[in-house]
Every structure is written in structure tokens, then in C-alpha cells.
Amino acid sequence: MNPKANEVATELRKLADALDKEPEAVIVTPNIYFSCSYQGDVGKAAFLHLAKVLPRPLVKKPTNDDYWLKGGNENLKVELYIDRKQVCVLREPAKPAVYDCPSILSEAEEAALGPF
Length: 116
Description:
The chain has helices at residues 5-20, 40-53, 84-87, 107-113, and strands at residues 31-35, 58-60, 66-73, 76-83. It is α+β, with helices and mostly antiparallel strands. The chain has one domain. It is elongated, with a radius of gyration of 24 Å.
């Protein structure tokens, strides 16, 4: 079962309190990652809600299959992820590339290559 926002916030406060015990310790930039994929409508609703409430600025970083919102700064990175199919409508499927390649070898040279 997925936690509620206040439950996550409570755990983040515990983490912040633990870090405050050693305020001068150098830490590698942490990354908070929210994955909303594979959760069906619950995941989509969570993604849309988080997209509204996360601190700004956020940058959209869609790829072929994924949809990312990224934010944060040098002290803390935040990433929000969902499968692109859950939030986008496919308007035109990808088309295979079509190449026109002139022969670079003579017929005799190609024949000498043998089977691959």
C-alpha cells in the first residue's frame, strides 16, 4: 500500500533531524526519486498531485518511454517519474528509419566478404 503525503513528510523530518545532529558533515548531493509508474490510476493521480506541489522550478524531461520532472538544487535533487503512456496520448507511432545507402563495395568485393 502506498503511504500518504503526511507519512512521507514525517519520515523526511526524521531524516532531516538525523542530519541536523552533524550539521557540518559533508554529504554527497542526495536525490529523492518518486516513481509513479506501474501503479495504474493511483500512480497517475499521485504523479499529477506531486507535479503540482513539489517546489519550483521543475523541468520537464520526457524521453521516448518515460516522463520526468526534475528539480532541486546543489543541496538536494528531486525527480518525479512516470511511464509516458500513463500521462500522454500517442498521436503518431514512431516510424522505422529508412536509409538509401549507395553501394560502397563492388559486386566482386561484396561477394568476397562471404556470409555474415
